[in-house]
Amino acid sequence: MPTPERTPGTSSSRLGLKVTGVFAALIVVSVAALIGVAGGVALTTFAQASPDRSPIKVKAAGANATTTPWPTQTTRSASAGISRSITVVGVGDSVTSGQNCSCATFVAMYASDLASTRGLNTSAVNLGVSGWTSVQLLQAMTKPGASRDQVAKADVLLVTIGANDLLPLEGKQPAGCPVTCYGPMLDSVGHNVTLIVAAARAAHPGHPPTILVTDYWNVFQDGDVGTSENGASFQSWSDALTRAASNSVCTAARQAGATCVGLYAPFKGNGSKNPTALLAADGDHPNAAGHQLIASTLLASTPQPLP
Question: What is the C-alpha separation between 275 and 158, in angstroms, rounded?
Answer without folding.
Answer: 22
